[in-house]
Amino acid sequence: MSLPDVPRLGFIGAGRLARCLARRFAAAGFPVVAIASRTTESATGLAARIDGCRAVDT
């Protein structure tokens, strides 16, 4: 099995660090595809700011 050239990223948690990292990775061209958090509102809020990203239920 070969790995993709550019990894797809997901974050567990939608706090301050995840918000900064996820947005910076996305701006640098890395596909941020999923955000999971204890609260759906937090995950949905962060995912909405990143193209191609979705909130996932934990």
UniProtKB/TrEMBL annotation:
Residues 8-51 form the Pyrroline-5-carboxylate reductase catalytic N-terminal domain. This is DUF2520 domain-containing protein. Gene3D superfamilies: NAD(P)-binding Rossmann-like Domain (3.40.50.720). SUPFAM superfamilies: NAD(P)-binding Rossmann-fold domains.
